[in-house]
Amino acid sequence: MRKYVMMGVQGSGKGTQSAMLCRDLNLVHIGVGDILRWHVQQHTKLGAQIRRIMAGGELVSDDLVESVIRRRLADHDWNYGFVIDGFPRNGRQAEFFLESYDIDGVIHLDLPDSEVRRRVLNRRLCTRCGMDYNIIDDRPEVEGQCDVCGGQLTTRPDDTPEALAARLREYHDKTRPVLELFRRKEYVLNVDAQPDPQTVQGVIRARFGLPPYRPEPEMPVPSGA
Ligand SMILES: [Zn+2]
């Protein structure tokens, strides 16, 4: 059983790296953002609560996120382990998490704020299917149009330089204590998140002694190593 925590500022590729890590290792990806979105889309009771909070311009509280994650982990559908991203959000949650689960490692995707700005401010989002694009690195084939569903691409209203600066400040303030706590337990693997996703994934796997990432799905072959 393997259990990892993926940490990193927005735009650092947490979701992508988590999905890549889960794919052939049979790990379950527990992404806070995905779970919250699912509840909103499925019109659950919790989804209605989240929608109200967001409509009021508020952020979903740490306590609400914690109860969502506790419930998600209690499903115990992760026979081979999990990769969790978007949690823990503060020192108290990190302590609870360490006491309750046997963590194999914390992956900290390190990205300078200048690079976060470049990535996030060039981000475009499909209004129909939610696919992310970046007009510098990951351009759609037709400008302003989603490759997957043909939907219209827009900028998120909160992706302005001012809003991003505030989010970065908040992220650093909140994350520092969490990372410090994990560092004291010597769990933290710092990874430079600037190279392309496959290179980053390769570094993570090598450092944890995991089998190399295979980009294309193929038939399982007996490992000679
Ligand atoms: Zn789309």
Q: List the strand order in the largest sheet.
A: 2-3-1-4-8
Molecules bound to protein = zinc ion
In terms of structural class, how would the helical and strand content be classed? Answer: alpha/beta
Query: Stretches where pLDDT falls below 50 for ≥5 residues?
Result: none
What overall form do the CA principal axes indicate? globular
* Gyration radius, rounded: 18 Å
Helicity range: 40-55%
What is the averaged pLDDT score? 89
* Total number of helices: 8
Largest beta-sheet details: 5 strands, parallel
Termini separation (Å)? Answer: 20 Å
**β-strand amount:** 15-25%
The counted number of beta strands is 8
What does this structure look like?
By secondary structure, this protein is an alpha/beta fold. It has helices at about 15-25, 30-40, 45-55, 60-75, 90-100, 115-120, 160-185, 195-205, and strands spanning about 1-10, 30, 80-85, 105-110, 125, 130-135, 155, 190. The strands form 2 sheets. The chain has a 5-stranded parallel sheet with strand order 2-3-1-4-8, with helices on both faces. A hairpin with a 5-residue loop joins β5 and β6. α2 packs across α3 (about 45-55). The longest helix has 24 residues, at about 160-185. It is globular and about 45 Å long. It starts with a strand and ends in an 18-residue tail after the last helix. The model has no long low-confidence stretch (mean pLDDT about 90). The structure holds zinc ion (ZN).
Architecture blueprint of SSEs:
Elements: E1 2-8, H1 14-23, E2 28-31, H2 32-41, H3 45-55, H4 62-74, E3 81-85, H5 91-100, E4 105-110, H6 113-121, E5 123-126, E6 132-134, E7 153-154, H7 161-184, E8 188-192, H8 197-207
Parallel strand pairs: 1-3, 1-4, 2-3, 4-8
Antiparallel strand pairs: 5-6, 5-7
Helix pairs in contact: 1-8, 2-3, 5-7, 6-7
The structure holds zinc ion.
Zinc ion (ZN) binds at residues 126, 128-129, 131, 146, 148-149, 151.
